[in-house]
Amino acid sequence: MKISPLLAAILCGFTPLTHAATATLDEVVVTATRFKDKASDKPINITIINKTDIQQSSAHTLPELLSEQSGIASHDFFGNNATSASVDMRGMGTAAGQNTLILLDGRRISDPDLSGVQWSAIPFASIERIEILRGSGAVMYGDGATGGVINIITRNPAHEGVSGQVSARAGSYGTQELQANGSFFTGVVGVDVTASKLHLNGYRANNANDQSDAQATMRWLNEIGELSFKLGLDSQTTRLPGARTVQPALGTNQVATDPRGTSTPLDYASRDGQQFALDWQQRLGEADLDIGAAHRTKNQKAYFDFGGFPNYRNGDLAVTSFTPRVRIPNQFGGDSSFVLGVDMHRWNYVQRISNAPANIAQPANNINMQQRNDAIYLQNTTHLSAATTLLAGLRNERIRMDGTDTYNAAAPGAFFGSAAPASTFSANRNAYDVGLLRQLNDSLAVHGKIGRSFRFANVDEIYEFGPTFTNQFQFLRPQTSDGIDLGLERKLADYSWQANIFRNRLKDEIHLDPFSTGVGNTNLPPSLRQGVELNGKMPAGEYVTLTAAYSYTDARFLSGQMGVNNIAGKRVPLVASHKTNLGASWSINEQTRLNTSFSYVGAQYMENDEANTLGIKIPAYALADLKLVHQVQNWQLNAAVNNLFDKKYFNYAISSQFTAGKYNAYTLPGRTIYVGLSYQQ
Questions:
Q1: Cα 114 from Cα 463, distance rounded (Å)
Q2: Which DSSP helix (H) or strand (E) runs through 141?
Q3: Among the residues of 413-519, which ranges form H helices?
Q4: What is the pLDDT of residues 120-178, one digit of tens each?
Q5: Residue 151 neighbours by CB distance under 10 Å
């Protein structure tokens, strides 16, 4: 990978000969060690999106906000509040949702199915900050952290007294949103509550979305520790407009002629979730103890008409976790420490399949999967000197899956069905990290890391049709990834930049094979992800701050076949080689700020085009956004315009494996305008 000269040239361009500013204050993070720690003395590639960054961004969904960072892309099906959106770190492509681990307050909300994270269930008003850990996290968090970890940290009652905020927003496509937050803290006991409600009609026909959420955090402090309790409820109903078809041989191009139409006017889905978590943190002499326990459930329903051959699914998933850990100072003294922990997760997955909601009590298929993940991990941070830190960690994780399926031939809508034979699968995988940080001066540091991550196939990836079209559980080998990261970072009070290069080699990558009869997902021959990530922030005069992010990603299959297709050397679908984000924040006066952003995403191969032979890609696109914020005492008025120039685009498409030149695309909204008003006390 010939990127070292390029990186050197870029670094020379970013690095001034002199700079009189002082080093920035050290930020505290929790994702890297699962305890509160300084960010600057760990050999990790971490980015923090704080509350000010969130308020200034013109993004109105979490995937949009995250994709403003280098190395992170998003794919959205419908553009209605990220209902069916995924986030991709470091070019994972089709399986991005299973290779980017998403945490909420340090607990995984990436589930062992293909439903994806419900981004809209996390209101912006509830978020304190977001920590992005690129290319790392497998030792601390385990399965699914191939690209990295995104930890969304919600508000905690922290400031004495009573405070609150109410905001309302309205805009294009029938958008109506209301959010409220209240906090009370005595210095010892506190509570923080956030609630939100959203309705939008959507850009497409049959695209309406209704979302309701509520979250509460209770906190009790004593002299040597604290006890906290978090509760969350969410409910969503959404209509599913389906794809827009392009088939040149028949003269069909719905992307151009009817981008807002629908071919699935009867399809819909709903999702309801509950979660609660308990954390007890205690200081025991020189050691820190954290004992966490949580339980989360979700119910998902979906109806697909399939042109008169309907399919209705009603599924439940529950997970209970127990995650004790301890941090102990090691013999090197200072801030050197040793973290030891255990993760225990118990999953219960039930899926009932029928032809209509009224018949779900008598399903054609009733699938049940019990899954247990047990892991032990340790990580040691040693300060070899005042300027040099060594980090080393190891994790061992075991998985066991027990699947059953029953088929009722007498059920309404049952037609030539079958039950998958009961099956059991178990596996064991290790992850490790070894990293070194060298602080060159007060503001400049270089770091490097090597490591291994892994991923287990989820239940939706193993329940498939066999060669004779009978249902079966097709268990797969766990995926592993060996990677190396090198980075250089400078942080000053008003000026900062990061430059990183990475290379990950994947073995047994879990990937859909749409070309082979009797095979659903499969283990691929080795593949590669490598690239460059650049981030920068600097003032331009007294009133303007500029930000920039660029990433180059080379994602390719190294060898082998997929069905009859040779994929050796071919690019991984749904990965853009080039991505750029630029932003400017202008403080017009003490009360008014204008934020502008520009994003460019390069062309990508479509899903199912692993052989790169379709002859057409998802086109590159560029978007511009504006956001104006005006503050009058406790009142804030904001107005935003997304997709300012009304560009017609899509960022997800899938080619037909049966008809040459045919593909389905999911068109996204044109120009959207939002106006909001909030009051904070």
A1: 12
A2: helix 138-141
A3: 459-462
A4: 888 888 899 999 999 889 999 999 999 999 999 998 888 889 999 999 999 999 999 99
A5: 25
- Written as six digits, the tokens of 284 are 């025991």
* Distance, C-alpha 659 to centroid of its chain: 33
Residue with tokens 């280098």: 70
Residue 406: strand pairing partners: 366
Per residue in 428-459, pLDDT (tens digit) is: 999 999 999 999 998 999 999 999 999 999 99
Name the fold adopted by 4-680.
Maltoporin; Chain A (2.40.170)
Q: Which residues contact 365 (CB under 8 A, 6 or more apart)?
A: 351, 352, 353, 405, 406, 407, 408, 417, 419, 471
- Candidates 500, 483, 524; CA nearest to 94 is 524
Q: Does the predicted TM-score (pTM) go above 0.70?
A: yes
* HSE-CB of 658 using CA atoms within 13 angstroms: 2
Length of the chain: 681
Distance (Å, whole) CA 543 – CA 494: 12
Helix (H) or strand (E) holding 9: helix 4-14
**CA 326 to chain CA centroid, nearest Å:** 27
Helix ranges restricted to H, 362-505: 459-462
pLDDT per position as a tens digit, 236-292: 999 999 999 999 999 999 999 999 999 999 999 999 999 999 999 999 998 999 999
CA 517 to chain CA centroid, Å, is 32
Q: Where are the alpha helices (DSSP H) in 227-352?
A: 254-257
Quote the tokens at residue 521.
Answer: 């997902």
Which residue has tokens 């592993």? 480
Exposed, middle or buried: residue 223 (CB in 10 Å: 0-12, 13-18, 19+)?
exposed
Concatenated DSSP letters of 40-67: TTSS--EEEEEHHHHHH----SHHHHHT
- Whole-angstrom CA distances from 510 to 98, 115, 328, 463, 504 are 9, 17, 37, 14, 15
Helix boundaries (H) for 322-376: none
Cα separation, 557 vs 527, in Å, equals 4
In sequence order, what DSSP letters do the residues of 428-483 get, joined into one string? EEEEEEEEEEEE-SSSEEEEEEEEEEEE---HHHHEEE-TTS-EEE---PPEEEEE
Residues 260, 203: contact at Cβ < 8 Å?
yes
DSSP character for 492? B
In angstroms, the Cα distances linking 462 to 111, 281, 516, 663 are 14, 39, 15, 26
167 neighbors 181 (Cβ within 8 angstroms): no
Give the amino acid at 83. Answer: T
Domain ranges of the chain: 4-680
Distance of alpha carbon 367 from alpha carbon 459, whole angstroms: 10
